[in-house]
Each structure stands twice: as structure tokens, then as C-alpha cells.
Amino acid sequence: MKVMKFGGSSLANFECLQQVAHLVTRSASVPALLVLSAPGGMTDTLVDLAERAQKGDDYQSQWMAFVSRSLELKQQVEAAYGEIKNWPDFKKLEQNLSGVSLLGVCPDPIRAYVISFGERISVSLMQALLGEFNPTYLEATACVVSRGGYLDAEASVSLSTERFAEEMAKLPSHIYIMPGFTASNEAGELTTLGRNGSDYSAAIAAACVKAQVCQIWTDVDGVYSADPRYITKATKIDSLSYKEAMELSYFGAKVLHPKTILPCAKAGVPCEIKNTHNPDAPGSLISDVSQADEPVKALSSLQDLAMLTVSGPGMKGKVGMAARVFSALAQDNVSIVLITQSSCEFSISFCVHQADLELALDALQNAFELEYQAGLIEPVQVKRDLAIVTLVGDNMKAHRGLAAKFFASLAQAQVNIVAIAQDSTESSISAVIDGSLCNDAVKVCHENFFTHIPSIDVFLLGCGLVGAELIKQLEKQQQWLEKRNIKLNLYGVANSRQLLLDENGIDLNNWSGVLAESQQSFELATVEKFVKANHLINPVIVDCSSSSELADQYVSFLAAGFHVVAANKKANTASQAYYQQLMDTSLKNNRKFLYETNVGAGLPVLDNLKLLFSAGDELLSFNGVLSGSLSYIFGALEDGLSLSEATLQAKKNGFTEPDPRDDLSGTDVARKLLIIARESGLKLELSNIEVESVLPQGFAEGASIDEFMAQLPSLDEAFGQRVNEARDEGKVLRYVGSIVNGHCKVGIEAVGAEHALNDIRDGENALAILSQYYQPRPFVIRGYGAGSQVTAAGVFSDILKIVSR
Ligand SMILES: NC(=O)C1=CN([C@@H]2O[C@H](COP(=O)(O)OP(=O)(O)OC[C@H]3O[C@@H](n4cnc5c(N)ncnc54)[C@H](OP(=O)(O)O)[C@@H]3O)[C@@H](O)[C@H]2O)C=CC1
Ligand SMILES: N[C@@H](CC=O)C(=O)O
């Protein structure tokens, strides 16, 4: 015999009922005991009707809707399958409700009768659908014996086994049908088994009849590695052990009722979760075997919890205190979800469902009244709106590093851990966290333990030459990213006036037109809100502007949980104090601040410096060409172009700063040199750098970029003369930065053919780093040091570092 339990979603309408009948009859070779829930949503309606009646509210419209839905189902079934027998007594139900309404009370036995009415409807409908198989109606109140109240009763396998045998023997059949959720106490009164208790009914029935399998037919394919409503990449688990299933259902997996597993486990009946709407899918099998390639089987989460901490001098070393706390709660029927105790025995903390909080506080107040008065116990501390995230897997046992990975994942999701608990069989680890961050926590943990596909959520500020090229590269590299299992989403793009946000990810081929129509501009709060609403776990702000206003906000970006990738050099060249604050905030908030393109554009300069210095090396001196645009301009001057022609050409090539004065004045090179100096451990301000400008002092001051470019030819002759003088000496001009004995200087140098920088031109950079380990010959980095392509590629590479391990 097999037990087949069908839930409300499988019985929601006439078509669903037909599908259930089809599933039952297609495997009719094995005798079956069907356990049915109420048609989807009906129990909620009945609960609501009882509530309204009790409060004296008008419940007529709900009642009419309930009756009409029931009658419609009845008519549809009768039209196709003939007369329905055992149609439940609606008159009696109505009388009960009106009695409740008149008295203003709804005693538990009446409530149990009202709320279990839907299961009776399902059973009588299904009897008609299966008419040709002559199914036997099993009265649940005759078979399932329960203890402990009318509404959340515990069914007893030992007391029910004989009842099932007797009832089934009265009218032997190949198919039996029984309403779920319903039982009776030893006095024969109707009871119910708690909300969604039909799974439990099925498990009890399976244990009593020693079924070969207990099938739970529902609307999902099985048990998933995480809640598929939130985690789209959650995968179905083929097989779980009873223990794993129990942990999962207890800690929130909705597909299973927590009480279901134990009766099956005790009786050794395998339990199968199947999808009524996808019956050929393999489902999940719960048995005493746990097959797994990975140690962690699934992740579950439970929300709406409160944590109570009982502490005080009277707790320490006092035998029986924990027992008193928990028996006080048990007496008032408060279920405890998780317990932790400090090793000094000074306090006990435990979680309860938030709905039980007041009850729990009252219970403790009553139990410890004298201790409170004597100051032996402090007022109970309460933390509300918490959640528990749990990792489950029998094979976690003796696996080192899982807890570390779990906690690191929570840190990655910016989640603070309030309390932790691990059972001694090592098959589950739980963390109590802020409830509002629960989905974020589950998402990161799932990514790290299951999919191993990290996601990076990009917000791009600045979509000029470098930013637009970056978007092109993101588009081009989609397949490459997919192959490397990285999900990179562009969720936001901004220029100085507009901000475009799209929760589905921005169309990489068609963003500029849509951005142009946006009515909002970039504000940190707007993007923060977007990140929260969409539960993004690796948000990164990529700054491809040259805005000081944005650079000044990096500390706030990092503190708000964003990683920051900057092509913009202004943050790193603001005050030394701000630079230090940036590094500290990044470390403290576990958020990366990456700026490789600040020096040498796409060349790996800063990463190499960091590697050298992290191994204890020290900078002795530095010398090099650090500007792509000036490298290009000085090379072009050598070829006979004028200063203005060469600058225009460098600008067109995308080598200059948005304002070319930043390059020609030496400021951009000074910034780069300052960054190198700071990375080498020197504490300096931009004003400490000695700068020689290509431009005369005060030249084109206050002019716009276009006006400046128009005035530049006035310098051509004088500068041409300087180039010629160098040439006469067999030399060329180069714009060089140097650090010697801690002194930083940028300026023009005339270098001969023998000089290492003589052939550094056309946009190339060359950096010579003389260090403790690299001397007398320096460590040299050379290559193109400007241009939107190499810079965007450098920014891209920084973005990917966010998920590199
Ligand atoms: N070119 C190169 O080789 C290299 C460049 N860099 C750095 O890259 C950065 C970008 O250079 P590039 O692309 O040439 O510059 P562009 O002038 O082409 O683009 C700058 C972008 O930043 C936007 N922007 C300005 N202010 C803000 C703001 N407050 N909020 C949002 N967006 C803003 C601009 O918007 P709008 O159009 O509305 O003004 C524009 O989209 C610079 O900091 C530069 O130093 C670094 C290494 C190499
Ligand atoms: N304008 C800069 C671009 C890179 O930072 C340069 O010329 O090097």
C-alpha cells in the first residue's frame, strides 16, 4: 500500500481534481490510501469565517463566496461523474457559525469542526471522481487518535494503528480516501493537527498501515537547496535523510510540515515529495540514506523570530535554572526554536516565534517573580525581528572549514551574527541574524555553497570615453564571463545629470538613449534603496568620471556596503587623512576599494607595487614617464607637430583627461606620482609634489575647455623653440616623474639617445622602481599608459577582483 497525500494547490479547482484522479488511477496496481487537504485557500476562508463570527463581524459575503465556490465544484464534478455521496452538512456548519456569532465565543471543539470542513469537501468530491474504483471513505476521526487539545493535537501511531486496521477491514478496497488535518481524541471528539497538518495525517497513516511509501503531492518538484521563491538558482535535491528533512522543515522549508518526518522515520517508511503538475519529474526521496556529493545539502531560513536573554547573578552555577526557564515556557505552550548559553553560565538566550513573545515574557515573569525582586535575575533582554539561517547536511560531519565559510558568507552579505548554534551531530549550523537581511544572507550562502556562480552588481558613474568603452567590453565578454561562472550585471549608469536604474539589468546595447530620458540624477540613497529592494549582495560603484564630488563620497559608498572601483584619481589624491580613511573604511566594512587604473591606465603598476611591498620590499627611488598623453604629445613634437596640434591629437585619441589642462599643467602626473608615493608608505599631500607645468602660469585661467584649446596655438612657437634646442643637443623632451629620498617631482627633461626614457613615446609609459630587492637594476614596467580601451580593460579587471579568491 502507498499513501498519497494531495495538498490544497493540487485540489484547487475542477481541473486539478481531475489531474489528481488521473495520478491515482494511472498507478492503480498498488493499493492506495489518499489523504486530502482542503481545496486551495479554503481553510484560510474557514479560519476567517470563525474569526469574524466570533468578533460579531458581518461574515455573510465570505460565507456566500465559500458556499458558491463549493457548490460550483460540486456541480462540475456531478455533471461529469454523477451524484456525490457524503456531501458535508453545510447547514450544520452555518448553524455552528451563527451560534459562534450569537455567543461571541468560538470554543476550540467548534473551531476544529469549522476549520476542518474543507477536507470533507475534498474527500466527497474525490470519491465521485474515483467512483468506478469504488473507493472506501475512511473517517479520519475513527482512524487517527490524537492527544493534547483540539487545534494543534499530536497524533499517536500506537493508538491509531489498530483503528486503521479495523476501519479498513470494514470495507476492503483498492483505494481508500481520508480527510487530512483531522483526528479525534480518546473521547471521540473531533480535533485538528495544526495548520497544514495534512502532511502529518499522511505520515501517521503511512506509519500505521506500514506503507511502502508516503507520497506528498504538492506544487513544486521536491525539496530545494533553498527557497526557490527567493533563490532562482536553487536546485532540487534528489535524496535526503530523515534527519536532514527534519532539520530543513523545522528551520523553515515550506514544502514539508515539521511533524511529518518523524512518524515516517520511526516506521522506516520512505517519504517522496512529488509535483502534481509535473508528475513525471523524479521528486525528492526522504529515507534513511543521504546521497550527496557536497557536504551541505540545503539552506533554510526561518523569519519573524524574537530572541530572549535571561541573565543575572542568580544564574551562575545554579542547578536547574535552565530547566525552570524552559518548563515555564513549555507550560504556556511556547515553542523554543533555538537555544544558546554562554560558557560562564551567566545567561541563556533562546529564540521564539515573535507571535509567542508576549506569552513567553509573561511566563518568565511569573516563574521568576521572586528572583526579579531580589535582583538575582535581570530584566529579560529582547531582540525582535530576527531570522535564523541554517546549513543542513549529514555529511557536514567532520568537514573542516564549513562554519568558517558560512560565517564569511554572512560577513560578505554585510550581516551581523546575533547568535549561533550547532547540533552535536554536526548536521546543521544555524546563525541568528537581523530578519531584514535574511534573504541577502541566504543568497550569498547559496552562491558560495551551491551554485559557485558569484554575482557582481555594477553601478557605473561616468559613461564618457572610458565608461562607454567599459559597457562595450561588458557586452563583448558576456560569454567569456558565463564560461567562468561569473554573473556580472550592470544595474545602473549615470552621467553628471542623469541616473538610469533597471532591476532587470541594463540593456548593454541600448543604454544611452534610455539614460538620456531619465528624470533622476545619482544620489547614494537612491542606489542604496535599489540595492536593498533587489537584495543585491555584491554591489560595486565604478567611478569613470573625474568628479571630485563623487570622489569625496567614496567613504560613504564603502560604509554603505558598496565596493568601489575607481578610474578617477581624485579620491586617492585628496588629503592624506581622507586617503587613510578610505583604506580604513574599506577594511572595516569588508568592502574592496580598487584603483589600478589610477597609475599607468591598464598597466599592472599598483598591483605589482603592492606585491613587492607586502613581501617587505622598500622603495629606494622611482623614475618614469607616467602620462600617456604627454608621452604622445612629446613624441609628436619630436616628429614636428606643434604643441596645439599634438594636444588635439592626444585628446582625439582619448589619452588626455576630460580637461587637457590637467595633463599639460602636470597635475595629472603629480597625482599619479603621489599615489605611487602613498602606496610606498610616504605620507604626502599633493601640494608637496614639485610640479613644472608645460603651460605658462595663469594661462587660459577660467576659460572653458574649448576656449583653452582655441588659445593653445599661441604657445606653439615658444614651445617649438624648446623642442628645437633639445634637438640641437641630440636630445628629446620627456615629461618625467621622480621620487628621490622621499622628494617627489614632475617636469620636463631633455634626454639623450642613451637615456632609458628616450624612446618612450606614442602614449607609452615606462616606470622604473628601484627597491631594496630590485637594485642596482630597477624593476621596470612599460606599455601603453592611456586610452579608453586599455583603461576600461583595467577597470574591468578591477571589477572581477571583487569575486576573486
Ligand atoms: N583616458 C584615459 O586614458 C584614462 C582615464 N582615466 C580616468 O578616467 C576618468 C574618465 O575619463 P574619460 O572617460 O576620458 O572622461 P569623460 O569626460 O569622457 O567622461 C566623464 C564622464 O563622467 C561623468 N560625470 C561627471 N561628473 C559626474 C558626476 N558627478 N556624477 C556622475 N557622472 C559624472 C560625465 O557626465 P557628463 O557627460 O554629464 O559630464 C561623463 O559621462 C577620469 O577620471 C580619468 O582620469 C584613468 C586612466 C586612464
Ligand atoms: N590623461 C592620462 C590618462 C591616464 O590616466 C594620461 O595622459 O596618462
Automatic annotation (TrEMBL):
Catalytic activity: L-aspartate + ATP = 4-phospho-L-aspartate + ADP; L-homoserine + NADP(+) = L-aspartate 4-semialdehyde + NADPH + H(+); L-homoserine + NAD(+) = L-aspartate 4-semialdehyde + NADH + H(+)
Domain ACT residue range list: 310-384
Any GO MF annotation of the entry: ATP binding
Biological role: Bifunctional aspartate kinase and homoserine dehydrogenase that catalyzes the first and the third steps toward the synthesis of lysine, methionine and threonine from aspartate.
Cofactor requirement: a metal cation
Family affiliation: In the C-terminal section; belongs to the homoserine dehydrogenase family. In the N-terminal section; belongs to the aspartokinase family.
Pfam families in the cross-refs: AA_kinase, ACT_9, Homoserine_dh, NAD_binding_3
Subunit structure and binding partners: Homotetramer.
Entry protein name: Bifunctional aspartokinase/homoserine dehydrogenase
Keyword hit for Membrane: no
Superkingdom as given in the UniProt entry: Bacteria
EC number, as in UniProt: 2.7.2.4, 1.1.1.3
Annotated organism of origin: Pseudoalteromonas ulvae
Keywords of the record: Amino-acid biosynthesis, ATP-binding, Kinase, Lysine biosynthesis, Metal-binding, Methionine biosynthesis, Multifunctional enzyme, NAD, NADP, Nucleotide-binding, Oxidoreductase, Sodium, Threonine biosynthesis, Transferase
Pathway(s) it belongs to: Amino-acid biosynthesis; L-threonine biosynthesis; L-threonine from L-aspartate: step 1/5; Amino-acid biosynthesis; L-lysine biosynthesis via DAP pathway; (S)-tetrahydrodipicolinate from L-aspartate: step 1/4; Amino-acid biosynthesis; L-methionine biosynthesis via de novo pathway; L-homoserine from L-aspartate: step 3/3; Amino-acid biosynthesis; L-methionine biosynthesis via de novo pathway; L-homoserine from L-aspartate: step 1/3
PROSITE patterns assigned to the protein according to its UniProt record, in alphabetical order: ACT (PS51671), ASPARTOKINASE (PS00324), HOMOSER_DHGENASE (PS01042)
Record GO biological process: homoserine biosynthetic process; lysine biosynthetic process via diaminopimelate; methionine biosynthetic process; threonine biosynthetic process
Taxonomy of the source species: Bacteria, Pseudomonadati, Pseudomonadota, Gammaproteobacteria, Alteromonadales
